[in-house]
Structure to design on (210 residues):
């Protein structure tokens, strides 16, 4: 089932889609299976060396998802910031209803299992370097011998080369400029981090003036 994206919320800007994937890499990965789909929650990284949008990740070997997904078209769902929007924030609240602002990207393509130990090590190293950062105290994959072999044999590395990418940034684009400014002010003033982050995305990807 394709993502429902009304025209006002459709995003075709590849840089904006990449930004959401990069900033919110913990994805929901769904692969069709019988009697029910396989679903895993995994960090996925863009392969910046690839000409086509390509995602890299891994499963725990004990996860049956990896056994059923090889060669199967799967969908990675990246969840960006999201927040409740109250009609009381609008200029005319009596003629409005509550809603939810959010940003999401769906990446659809066949899941290719990477069988070699070197592939597994490359994916693991990329993930560690991405999330540990470059601080001197950052953890690095430096174990050796049987301990290293055991860790690498315990994961199933994979990549997904995108066949379709859908972006939906529902950020009050369908409201008048005055209402968008009021929503943005309310989100900025919230005590909830997700609400303030949603306001940041409204500022980045919509205009309060039209």
């Amino acid at each position: 089932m394709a993502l429902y994206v009304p025209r006002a919320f459709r995003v075709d800007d590849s840089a904006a889609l990449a930004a959401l994937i990069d900033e919110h890499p913990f994805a929901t990965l769904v692969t069709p299976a019988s009697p029910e789909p396989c679903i895993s929650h995994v960090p996925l990284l863009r392969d910046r060396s690839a000409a086509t949008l390509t995602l890299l990740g891994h499963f725990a070997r004990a996860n049956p998802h990896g056994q059923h997904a090889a060669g199967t078209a799967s969908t990675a769902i990246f969840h960006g910031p999201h927040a409740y929007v109250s009609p009381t924030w609008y200029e005319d609240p009596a003629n409005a209803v509550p809603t939810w602002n959010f940003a999401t990207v769906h990446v659809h393509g066949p899941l290719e299992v990477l069988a070699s130990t070197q592939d597994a090590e490359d994916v693991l190293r990329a993930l560690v370097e991405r999330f540990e950062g470059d601080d001197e105290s950052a953890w690095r994959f430096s174990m050796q011998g049987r301990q290293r072999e055991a860790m690498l044999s315990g994961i199933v590395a994979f990549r997904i080369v995108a066949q379709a990418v859908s972006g939906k940034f529902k950020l009050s684009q369908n409201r008048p400029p005055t209402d968008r400014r009021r929503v943005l002010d309310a989100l900025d003033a919230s005590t909830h981090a997700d609400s303030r982050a949603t306001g940041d995305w409204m500022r980045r990807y919509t205009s309060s003036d039209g």
Q: What stands out?
A: The two ends are 32 Å apart (CA to CA). Strands lie at 10-11, 26-31, 38-43, 45-46, 54-60, 73-85, 99-114, 155-161, 164-170. The chain has one domain: 7-205. The mean pLDDT is 94.
